[in-house]
Amino acid sequence: MDNKVLIEAKAICLALDGKQILDHVDFRLHKGEIVTLIGPNGAGKSTLVRVILGLIKHDSGDVRLAPKLRIGYMPQRLTIDPVLPLTVRRFLTLAQRCSNTELIEALTEVGAEQLLDSAMQTLSGGESQRVLLARAILRKPDLLILDEPVQGVDITGQEELYRLISTIRKRHGCGILMISHDLHLVMSATDQVLCLNRHVCCSGHPDKVRIDPNYVALFGQTPVLMPYSHQHDHSHNAHGDIIAEHKGCQHG
Amino acid sequence: MDDFLLRALLAGIGVALVAGPLGAFVVWRKMAYFGDTLAHAALLGVALGFLLGINTNLGVVVVCILLALLLVAMQQKQRLANDTLLGILSHSTLSLGLIALAFMETLRIDLMSYLFGDILAVSNIDLYWIIGCAVLSLTVLIIIWRPLLAITVHEELAYVEGVPVTWVKLALMLLIAIVIAVAMKVVGILLITSLLIIPAATARSFARNPEQMAIFAAVIGCIAVSSGLFASLEWDLPAGPAIVVSAAILFFSAPWWLKLKRVCTD
Fold this sequence. Notes:
A: alpha/beta, Rossmann fold, 2 domains, globular, B: mainly alpha, ABC transporter involved in vitamin B12 uptake, BtuC
C-alpha cells in the first residue's frame, strides 16, 4: 500500500435551510484504504459523500481529489420505474461501452453472473446492490464510494457483501469510502472509522473508536465482539430501515 | 392522392417519427405535465411571433425555452410541489396567450386551429419546417441518447460517471420545445402531449429494451396519424382529435394485440 492521498477534505462546512449539516469536517483517504463513515441518521454522512462527489457545493472548506481520479460510485438505492424496459446488461453499459467478456467478468466478481439478462425491476435488494457494485467496478476505479452498500440486504447477505468489498479492494488496489449504519459488521471490514455527527466525533482504527468515549456517548457501550458477530443496538421500522436512537452526543 | 392530403400525411408522419422517441423520455422521466405546460405556453409564443413579426415557430420555441428555464429557477426557490408549479405556469401562460392574441385586433387568426390543430391546411412551407425540425431533432436525440438514458436511470450516478447532466437536460427541453412548435400544426396546443405520451405508453407493452420502445412509439405514432387522417376524411371528423382518438384506441387495444401474438407464437 503506497501512501498516495486520494481524498483530502479540510474544514468542510455546509448548512442547508439554516441547519448546520457539516461542521468543520476533516478527513483523508489513502490509496488501498477502506474508510467507513458511521453516525446516526441526519449526521451528514450522505451529505459529506455528496460534497466529495461534487453533487452539492459546500459553504466553506476545501476538498481535494487526486488528479485524474476515477471514481466508481454506488448510490444508496436504485429504483427503476417499470415503464423503462431495462436489462442488467443494458444498465451496465449505460456509462460506457464494454465487451461481453468484461460484463461477465464484472458480474462474476460480484457473484451475479446469472443476472446478465434479467430485467432490472425483478432484482431483489441484494442482487440490485451487487449489480450496482459491478457497474462501479466496470469503470476500473481508483476510488470506490459506496453509500450504504448493504442496505436492504439480510444479515448473511450483509456479511458476504462486506467480504466482497474487502476482496475488491485487494484485487483492484482501490481506495474505498463507504457509509454504514451497522457498526459491528463493518468493523472487521474497515481500516479507518470516521464517526460523524455533523462534526467528526472520533476517528481511527475500529478497535480504538469502539472504546472512544465520544463513540460510546453516541452509540452506547459496545461489548467486545468477535468479528462478524452481530448485536442489535437499534430497532428497525417496517421497511427494515434503522430507527435512530440518539443517545445524546454531548457535542451535537 | 390530393396534394393537401399528401402534405397532411407527411406532416403528421414527420411529427410522429420524432414525437414517439422523445415521448418515451417524457414517459420515463414523468414529464407529461411538463410537456403540457410548455404546449399551453405555445400560444404566447404565437402571439409573440405576430407581435415581433418573426416566424411563429421561432416564437413558440423561444417562449417554451424561457418557460422551461423559469420553471427550473422556480423549482429551486419555491417550496411548492412540482405539479402545483406546473399547473400555475400552464394556465397562466395559456391565459396570457389568449389575452395577447385578443389585443391584436387587426389580426384575424383562427384560434381553433391553434388549439386543436389544422393538419389539412398544412402548407408547403409548414411541411419544410416540420421535416427540417424532425430531422434535426432526431439527429440530436440520437447523439444524446446514451447520456440521456443514463441520467434518466440515475442522475447522480450519471453525473459522477462524467455525463454533463445540465447540458443534456437542456438539450431535452429544447427538443421538446421544437416538437411542440411543429406539432401544433398537426394536433394543436391542447392535444400535443397526447402525441408524445400515448404512442410511447402503447409501445411499452411490446418493448424489451429502451431503443425498441422508442422505435415502436414512432411506428405507433405513424399508424395513429394515418388512421386518424383516414377517419377524418371518411367520416368528416376533425383531424387532430381523430388522430388522438386513433392513438388512444391503439393504446387500449394493446393487451389484445399481445394476446393475439402469444396465441400465434404458441
